[in-house]
């Protein structure tokens, strides 16, 4: 037969035997308490949200600049727009996805 993806083919030259895929996987899967480790180390989103004591308010986005007419150095979100636009982000992406993070 063929060796399929995910299968293991082991030839043990010391015992002159070919070890079956299922037998080999069972041996290593039961050698350590992997299930217990996964259960112990898993972090669930519900537990993270529950651990926050109060709702987090996203920071306010300030206007373009003090004068409001486009002169002067950019401030607030306008300072970030040029690099973000270069990578395909929009102000809607910032409002709806990035700020709530």
Give structural notes.
With 101 residues, the chain is mainly α. The protein is 42% helix and 6% strand. It contains 5 helices and 2 strands, in the order E-E-H-H-H-H-H. It has helices at 21-29, 34-41, 45-51, 77-86, 91-98; strands spanning 10-12, 17-19. The chain has a two-stranded antiparallel ribbon. A hairpin with a 4-residue loop joins strand 1 and strand 2. It is elongated, with a radius of gyration of 28 Å. It starts with 9 loop residues before the first strand and ends with a helix. The model has no long low-confidence stretch (mean pLDDT 78).
What is the assembly state of the chains in this entry?
Answer: single chain
Mean pLDDT: 78
Give the class from helix and strand content and strand pairing. mainly alpha
Give the strand order of the largest sheet, numbering strands 1, 2, ... along the chain. Answer: 1-2
Number of helices: 5
**How much beta, percentage-wise?**
5-15%
- How far the N terminus sits from the C terminus, by CA atoms, comes to 51 Å
- Helical content (DSSP H or I, runs of 4+): 40-55%
Along the chain, the helix and strand elements come as EEHHHHH
Find the count of extended strands (DSSP E, 2+ residues): 2
Biggest β-sheet: count, sense, barrel?
2 strands, antiparallel
Query: Outline, from the CA principal axes?
Result: elongated
Unreliable stretches covering 5 or more consecutive residues: none
